[in-house]
Amino acid sequence: MLTINPVKTNNNINFQGKTRIRAIKYIPNITCACCGKKLILPDNLAKAWKSISKPISFIMKKGLLDKWTKRSDSIATVLNKFVQTEPEKPLEKILDNQENYHEFKNALLDYVKSRHPDSDADTNDEYVNRVLDSIRKNSREILKGASPVMKRLAVFKKNLHGLKRDIFEQFQIYAEKYPRKTLSEIVNMDEIYKFHSAKNFLQRAETRERLDYHFGNIKKMIVKQKPELADFADDLKEKALKIYAAEADPKIKFHKMKELYMEALESNNLAKLKFKVADELKLVPESFNTVDSFFTYAKNHNWTDYTIISSILTPHTSSYEHIIPRSENGEDKYSNGLVLCSTCNSTRKSMPYEEFLKYHPEMIYNTQRQMDMISKYILSGKLPEVFNFYPIKTAKTLYDYTNGLMNIDVSSYCKKALSHSENRIKEKTQAISRKKDERDKTIMKKIKLQQEIRNVDESISRLNKQVSKLREREQVEKSLHNNLLNYLKTKEKKK
Q1: N or C: which terminal CB in the chain sees fewer CB atoms within 10 Å?
Q2: Closest Cα to residue 182, out of 141, 154, 152?
């Protein structure tokens, strides 16, 4: 059941510059609708990049942006200007200034228009954002020393789980030992590479032995019941190993291997072995991936600092999931979206929920939990008004798309929203009444003013007439005065 509790947070969501339909993935402490884990917010990760990135002067000197400066004179001009004016700031912080940001975007737009002269404005904006993201990634390839980087990123440790948390902790250990070296330099150190490479070899060998052991036990169970199925059991093992290698998601991997064996046992009248085989499959190691395999792979593939950090943090970052995939003409609107971690999002891809829920039945509970959290923010007025219908419409989308498998309960939200709506209607009605009274008073004031203006106009008209009459009299008096003077002057001359 959906329960609504007061929102106990001082975090205000700023939607400036964000796509409105994706606003939900910026909610503080949002949890994945699939695995239920707390997610890293993109905004918080962006702030971290600003604080651990190298200055623009260093980035340009190392040639990390050469591929862009060589392609476009306008991009090169703006970047060189940044080097001259703010050499000690990373590109991320320089672009916090709106004037710098717009100047850089215009330079990117010039570059895009030169490459795609026939594209429309929307397409140009999309290209510009892609180029901007690429330049940002290039500027992060070399970060500050391991010590400040790991201290700044320590805030995200609580959001990491399993292997990613183990890798993060290993880097924290190395950061204390080699504080001035960058993460990529640490990974490329001979002693570290040899240490992890040797351990990785042994652990992979151990994993292979464990796989052989557990699949061998299953074969023994089958052969003990029906010796003639020995070759069949070997074929099943090969198919299971292919599933093991192909599937990254441990739950999907386990369920597919289980389905493979369950169907085989059923078709060969060995249903009584189902529980034993399922228990044996639960003991199969999740994957070959370990902390040591991560360090070995990063060294062999020349990973940069940015790639190392991204590979650890990105899987636990919030992302917008389309319930009905775009490949099935799913619309890009708020009622067709949930918040998933990047791992669950990439795992699901375009898999229908009816199939996906077989492997992740916990998603029903976790989606309800996420809807509860989003509902709190809607009711507290922390989300745009367009989201007032989000729980209702999204619950309907989930119900229709999954043929009733995901029946999210939003009745409590509706009751709370109805109560809020009634209060808002009262407030609006009272506000309208107040405004109408204010309007009526203003109209009456205007009428009075208009009457006063008419009275003033009449007074002015009356005074104008009086002035005109007085002027006429003045002219008559002046004429008389002049005539009298002339007469007297004439008389004097005659004398």
Answers
A1: C
A2: 141
